[in-house]
Amino acid sequence: MPGSSAGGDTAGERGPRTRRGRPTIKQIAEVAGVSRGTVDRALNNRGDVNESVAARIRTIANELGYSPHRAAKALRLNHDPVEIAVILPRTSSDFFSQIERGVADGAGAFEDMGIHTHVRWFDPSREDAFIRTLEEAVADGCAGIALTGPQTPGAVASVRTAVESGLPVVTTNSDLPSSGRMAFVGQDLYQSGVVAAELMGKMTRRAIRPARLIALTGNLTFQAHRDRIDGFAAGIGRWMDGTTVEVVEGQDRYDGTLSALEAIDPEGVVGAYAATGSIRALLEVRERWPEPKSVRVITNDDLPIVREGLLDGRIDFTILQDASAQGSEPVRLLAEHLLSGTRPANEWVRTPVIIAGATLLEVPPPEA
Amino acid sequence: MPGSSAGGDTAGERGPRTRRGRPTIKQIAEVAGVSRGTVDRALNNRGDVNESVAARIRTIANELGYSPHRAAKALRLNHDPVEIAVILPRTSSDFFSQIERGVADGAGAFEDMGIHTHVRWFDPSREDAFIRTLEEAVADGCAGIALTGPQTPGAVASVRTAVESGLPVVTTNSDLPSSGRMAFVGQDLYQSGVVAAELMGKMTRRAIRPARLIALTGNLTFQAHRDRIDGFAAGIGRWMDGTTVEVVEGQDRYDGTLSALEAIDPEGVVGAYAATGSIRALLEVRERWPEPKSVRVITNDDLPIVREGLLDGRIDFTILQDASAQGSEPVRLLAEHLLSGTRPANEWVRTPVIIAGATLLEVPPPEA
DNA sequence: ATGAAAGCGCTAACAT
DNA sequence: ATGTTAGCGCTTTCAT
Q: Rounded to whole angstroms, how far apart are CA atoms A322 and A342?
């Protein structure tokens, strides 16, 4: 049986080139003429190893194409398990609970690998809650962090501090670009706007031209709000002639949205895209327009008001993010990094832009 | 050191309830007063163990809530690795190459777990090619099988034989329901038809009633073809009044589709849904209708002709399956089963119904 | 039928 | 600075 594993004797011989399968630390040690312990220290920068020896070891490891064996590392980790901290804002919508379920999904695969996951919530309305939570996680000795943090200089700075102390950090849902994080997992908001535009365009094609479209958002000074609107405008420009897009800023509040929309002349409006903002206000105002039924509505996310609107036909489609992936992917990336030292090929791991209509309602809400 | 693992002494003491972390085989052995080897044999039905002892061991394992440690099992598997066979039809479209890429993705996570994956292709036009490929895989000693097979009694029978010999089998993309397979990974075709109907309905809303819709398919005697059409008809019934759906069977061939469509009176046709069948024929016939531009078109899958049509506007939307998931999920399910003995909670693992428009084209084709 | 021991690859504690 | 050893949980000879 030439396939059998040949564990025992062989005293080193067994043919010169019989490098069996994946190279191991033991093999590197043999080639370098040092002990396994030294190889381990060299390859993992644990210090206490002569630099020239370390360099030689690294060279050999490279030539052999060494990469650590995840199962072995995992089994060893089981010794004293390690924690991945997940830091999320406690918002009123349940979007982040969906992400939390994704986290649990992703974490399951690594429980037995000695990698545990711990979700820590912070109150986004309190100034430094995020920073404190982050510092707590670091102080508790976590081995990696996935987070959704506020876009403030303070937050960026503390993430940077964590990164510089050697911790792998992955942002999810919204990014902190200059924080040094290893990766960002989230949707391309511009693209989601383009998709909304294509839907809107193809739904309103038979309308009389020139036609008008409303794009509702919170506040264009926020880049994230801008992106969807920009994508929508660009998409409409590409898909339709004789159609104008009017942007309405509602500051994400019900009354602000209401008054801003009431100021609009409904004549010729064939559709409204709620990038962000009060969907309830939009639906109410639309009801008072002369021909509500002929105004198509596209929203974002899977909120109760959206399901309600999809059900009774006031909303046509909603654009979703893959919340589950935004929970599981960061955990996966961090765990893989801890086990094999790998980094994602792209810093930005895009989650899909999902078009959902009323058929969404036939599927039970997230995770049934 | 109360934390240290206490291999030797302790003679049972160390405080009565100090069951550290997850129960291990060693613990079960201690409690049962037998050796680890015996526990292993009992728990894995390897024979050579007194039935009464085995029963007691199983009871204890249950009480302790034992489940095997995946990292440890993986490390051991590394000893003599194990193979998952993936059996796919070699068709002309590249749909199954997309699945193949998904397989590679899924397999990556288990390479280091001593679980390798090997894709075997068969020629779907040859009568018993599938069965032969399956038997080869079994003869080669694979430890689990993911497959897409033909819906023939012979195929079902040989899958059943493999299952009965103790091999875990997962079907993907299309199911073999009564084959005894552990799970099926694939789309809900009926639901995909409903989604197509919702899109079609919302795109043609402003058309004059009564309006007519064409639903193109291959052959209604195939359940898979039927499902999409049924979903489409049901969805149209739900979303639109005064609209009729006419089913056209094109036998999935270009000329058959062409002549069947040419027999149709185009008057009042506002949309066409190509569930299956020759999309090229549909687009050609539509071009000769009096008002091509006012006939909305929805197709399935991501084929070259579909991309072409989306780009120049002859096709509005296409409904996709998540090919990548149909490759990676079966592998994941089988690998998890081999490592921890788990089975999926649901026999049917549904892959999402994805609505894609021209924006799809901005994203590079599968796996760039 | 059962027990004992070795080993998968890696790492931390303990020598030297 | 480097080597040695034990052990993570499981399986598999090889004894008994």
A: 24
Comparing CB atoms, the residue among B198, B206, B359 nearest residue A191 is: B359
Same fold for the pair B80-185+323-349 and B189-320:
yes
Look up residue B305 and give its two tokens.
């002709």
Count CB atoms within 10 A of the CB of residue A114. Answer: 21
Q: Do A203 and B207 touch (CB under 8 A)?
A: no
Which position has the higher pLDDT, A150 or A208?
A150
Mean pLDDT of A307-317: 95
Residue of B nearest to A69 (CA): B112
Average pLDDT over residues B276-305: 95
Kindly report the bases of strand C lying within 7 A of a protein C-beta atom: 1-13
Burial of B303 (0-12, 13-18, 19+ CB in 10 A): middle
- Residues recorded for chain B: 368
Residue A156 has pLDDT above 90, yes or no: yes
CA angle B288, B292, B293 (to 5 degrees): 155
Kindly report, residue by residue over B307-330, the tens digit of the pLDDT. 999 999 999 999 999 999 999 999
Q: Is A119 helix (H, G, I), strand (E, B) or coil?
A: strand
pLDDT per residue as tens digits for the range B42-73: 999 998 999 999 999 999 999 999 999 999 99
**Dihedral of CA B250/B252/B258/B264: which sign?**
positive
Q: Which CATH class is domain A1-66?
A: mainly alpha
B interface with A, Cβ–Cβ below 8 Å: 69-72, 74-75, 77-80, 109, 112-114, 191, 194-195, 198-199, 202-203, 205-207, 235, 239, 294, 296, 316-317, 340, 352-355, 357-359, 362
Residues of A 19-58 whose CB lies less than 7 Å from any atom of strand C? 21-22, 24-26, 36-37, 40, 43-44, 46
Tokens of B171: 């079907």
Question: In whole angstroms, what is the distance from residue B297 CA to residue B318 CA?
Answer: 9
* Mean pLDDT over the full length of chain A: 90
Amino acid sitting at position A348:
W
What is the CATH architecture of B189-320? Answer: 3-Layer(aba) Sandwich (3.40)
Give residue A138's Cα distance to chain centre: 21
Helices (H), A215-298: 223-239, 254-262, 279-288
Length B255 CA → C13 C1' (Å): 77
**What secondary structure letter does DSSP report for A361?**
G
Hey, where are the domains in chain B? Answer: 1-66, 80-185+323-349, 189-320
Neighbour count for residue B11 (Cβ, 10 Å): 6
Which chain B residues contact residue A71 at CB under 8 A?
71, 74-75, 77-78, 112-114
Q: How far apart are CA B186 and CA B58, in angstroms?
A: 35
How many Å does it take to go from CA B22 to C1' C7?
23
Pick B195's closest partner by Cβ from A198, A205, A359.
Answer: A359
CA distances (Å), origin B252, targets A77, B225, B260: 55, 10, 11
Distance from C-alpha of B188 to C-alpha of A251, rounded to nearest angstrom: 40
Using N-to-C axis directions, what is the helix angle for A51-64 and A25-32, rounded to 10°? 120
What residues contact residue B261 under an 8 Å CB cut-off, 6+ apart? B214, B216, B248, B250, B281, B282, B285
B114: nearest CB among A71, A191, A317? A71
Fold designation for A80-185+323-349? Rossmann fold (3.40.50)
Beta bridge mates, A83: A116
pLDDT tens digits, A248-272 = 999 888 999 999 999 999 999 999 9
Tokens of B25: 């085989």
Rounded average pLDDT over A154-163: 97
Residues from A contacting B (CB-CB < 8 Å) are 3-5, 69-72, 74-75, 77-78, 109, 112-114, 191, 194-195, 198-199, 202-203, 205-207, 235, 239, 294, 296, 316-317, 340, 352-355, 357-359, 362
